[in-house]
Amino acid sequence: MAGIFNQNQQLLLLFLSAFLCINDVIAKKPQTDAFVNHGFQNWKRALDKSKGLDRHAQSQGHILTASNFTVFQERGRIKQNVVQLLDKNRIEKIRRNQERLTKIASVLLLCARQSIGIRGHDESENSLNKGNFIEMLKWASSTDPIVKSIFEESTRSSTYLSPAIQNELIKIMAEQIKRQIAEKIKGQAFALMADENRDNGGHEQLSIVIRRVVNADNHKYIIQKYFIGLIRLHEFDAQTLSNEIVNYLTNYGAKLDSYIAQCYDGASVMSGKCSGVQAILRQNHMPNGIHIHCHVHRLNLVIVDVNKVIQYISEFYQIVSKIHSYFVSSSVTNEYYQTA
User: Fold this and answer.
1) Confidence of residue 172 (pLDDT cuts 50, 70, 90)
2) pLDDT surpassing 70 at residue 22
3) CB-CB contact of 222 with 214 (8 Å)
4) Which residues pair with 40 in a beta bridge?
5) Domain boundaries, the chain
6) Mean pLDDT of 301-320
7) Whose CB among 10, 83, 205, 216 lies 3.0–4.6 Å from 230's, allowing a Cys bridge?
8) Mean pLDDT over residues 128-152, rounded?
9) Which DSSP letter does residue 40 get?
10) What distance in Å separates the CA atoms of residue 148 and residue 183, rounded to the nearest whole number?
11) Strand partners, 214
């Protein structure tokens, strides 16, 4: 162990012991060891057992110094400085957080794929049911150490379980899916389907669906549909709806001249011959996009009109409706129907 010897005063100060253990030992407890305090000079007792050099060699300060010096030498050998150590810890922290976010995102994706709710009505500590998202993570924490660390090791401000983080992760995953769809349809012919609807909150939305034909194996053609999103509507005239559709599609790099068809219901604002959405899009953006009235909607209109014109068909549907009501209104009749 390196040190300083004062020949005039016959003092020996082990400066490595004094330097390397100062934060760990001296700061916690005042040192009485002469080797690291004011210098050793009792040379008559230097070689005595449990005194002098032997006592210092067995002291906590010396043992800690030896350990710290070994670490110091190892870091010097691999040329690892403090900045690198801090950077290594930062990288490790980022890696752990990425693992936790991956687990959280996978549960959110499962809830989305199964069309089940994410949040519960009561997510407090005493709640027996905190919602599908939290309950799934708690269930997984019993077997997955990464998920377990989300609840036990994360700070209260960085658990990544808040509704804001959930919404942000869902939005990121949705954007990735839309980009993947945009890559699939790039350079191909496809059709546009759109329809207005009102959600449970009373907000008008326009659903956007893209449809294409794919040449599968053995020259079998299959139809693929991609739901790419909902557009919140505040105005409902044809020009506004057309602008919303164009902006939404071009935002994902879709080439509008690749559209060969557009399909809507029979509402005049969508299917109007001169000033409907289909006419505006075809005149200004989709020259090849012929308009097709939705066949399902047309069938529904035919059935409604037939019911109005032919009385016995209307009576037929009324009888079927009454039979259905009879069997489902009572558990007795329903059981009889099931076993008949």
Assistant:
1) very high
2) no
3) yes
4) 12
5) 4-77, 84-161, 172-297
6) 89
7) 205
8) 90
9) B
10) 37
11) 222
Going through 127-239 in order, the beta strands assigned E by DSSP cover 190-198, 204-215, 221-232
Looking at 1.20.120, 1.20.140, 1.10.1200, 3.30.420, the CATH number of the domain 172-297 comes to 3.30.420
Q: Give the span between the Cα atoms of 124 and 134, in whole angstroms.
A: 11
CA-wise closest residue to 291 among 314, 266, 322, 310: 266
- Both tokens assigned to 207: 């659903």
Give residue 239's identity as a one-letter amino acid code. Q
Output phi, psi for 114, to 5 deg.
-90, 0
d(C-alpha 314, C-alpha 330), whole Å: 26
pLDDT band with cut points at 50, 70 and 90 for residue 10: very low
Nearest one of 325, 317, 248, 314 to 281, comparing CA atoms: 248
Task: Return the amino acid letter for 337.
Answer: Y
- Is residue 187 within 8 A of residue 258, CB to CB? The reply is yes
- Convert the pLDDT of each residue in 53-97 to its tens digit: 566 666 666 677 667 667 666 666 655 566 666 677 788 888 888
Residue 4, Cβ neighbours under 10 Å: how many? 11
Burial 223-235 (b: 16+ CB within 10 A, else e): eeebebbebebee
Q: What is the DSSP string of 209-234?
A: EEEEEEE-GGG-EEEEEEEEEEEE-S
Give DSSP secondary structure letters for 99-119. HHHHHHHHHHHHHHHTT---S
298, 279, 276: which is closest to 289 by C-alpha?
279
Q: What is the rounded end-to-end Cα distance, in angstroms, of the chain?
A: 97
Residue type at position 137: L
User: What tokens were used for 100?
Assistant: 């936790």
